[in-house]
Amino acid sequence: MPPADTGASTVVVDASAPSSPVTTTAAPAGAHERLEPGRPGYRKMSFALFAAGVAAFALLYSTQALLPAISVSYGVSAGQASWTVSAATGALALCVLPLSALSERFGRRQMMTASLTVAVLVGMLVPFAPSIGWLIALRAIQGAALAGLPASAMAYLAEEVRPKALIAAIGLFVAGNSIGGMSGRILTGWVAQAWGWRAALAAVGLLAVACAVAFHFLIPKARNFTPGSLNPKALAKTVATHLGNPLLVRLYAIGALFMTVFGAVYTVIGYRLVDEPFSLPQGIVGSIFLVYLVGTVSSAAAGQLVARLGRRGALYLAVSTTTAGLLLSLADQLASVLLGLVLITAGFFAGHAVASSSVSRTATTGRAQASALYQSAYYLGSSAGGTLGAVAFHAGGWAATVALGLLAVLGVVSITLYGTRVARAERRALIPATR
Predict the structure, then answer these.
(1) What pLDDT does 137 receive?
(2) Can you give the pLDDT at residue 84?
(3) Which residues of the chain have pLDDT under 50?
(4) Residue 276 burial by CB count (10 A; 0-12/13-18/19+): exposed, middle or buried?
(5) Cβ-contact 345, 326 below 8 angstroms
(6) Is residue 313 left, alpha or beta, with left meaning phi > 0 and alpha meaning psi from -120 to 50?
């Protein structure tokens, strides 16, 4: 059975493919059997990467649910406070490619461990930031440290897991992201209500410490990775080749646009819920992020969606779900807003899991760089969404933030439709040659 279509042409790798960014010695074919459900090591790997995902998202978005309190504490606007989130995601986007290149030399496991360690250490300093400037600076350092985790994790999975189990494995890692985002926000909400936002950030730091320790002891050693010396010219050539691949570029854009919606919605939602007509306390606002559980389910189920609908069909379903959620959230009834958040979250995580796994399967060489470019686009979308969403909210309220989200969703639809037309045109062009 052929792989499901993503709405773009199939990538064929041949002898003209770019050399690796590192100089390596090929491992013997079949030297190490890859992991899959039911085989030794797969469960430990799943738990380890799940813990890493929890720590990464809990730290990366630790200030998001606290933005109203941070605004009051420092006397700054929503747009200024939003930079405590955007600085972290922006720094991650800028650093993910160079750190992924280092993972080619020093190993995926080592890079993920180092990233978590540094991020956790910085996380213990964040609660003591004396000013908004210091808080933004520390958050940028934290985001840069976390940059070594996502692309290395995707490359690790692509190398260590059987292809037929890859989407499910990546879905579990993304599910860890959703659990981290949810637990971090709920924890900060209730702790902030009782002891203030600084104590809330300290609590997230302790959660991340526990996850980092679990990751260190559970993650299996890489068995299909061969280290090599860095080759900057080959790295530049690999990156240029990936950026010259229309399929990969479309996937990068889809990831960025989905994350623009998500970043805008979750950066601003706290301001909306603490204001009229809802006037919810900080703890309840933090608990709203329980809807992340929906993202855990939808991302883990991405493989089944692709099997039934194809990748294009799964993307269209994700877009439709996200759009419905945005429109529902416009109502001034709390139940409608909550249902809207549920649909936005489900659509986003499903779309992200499909797009990110498509990148890993498409790039048969330079996988770390392909994943790094996706992560760069993804987190640039988060940074842009958070800042633009806050600016839109300040200028025109929640309706303006929703309009920004709908514009991004329209971009995803346009890209997917274009890819569909390209794929159909290529198939029609191949028919005479096969007769």
Answers:
(1) 96
(2) 95
(3) 1-31, 434
(4) exposed
(5) no
(6) alpha
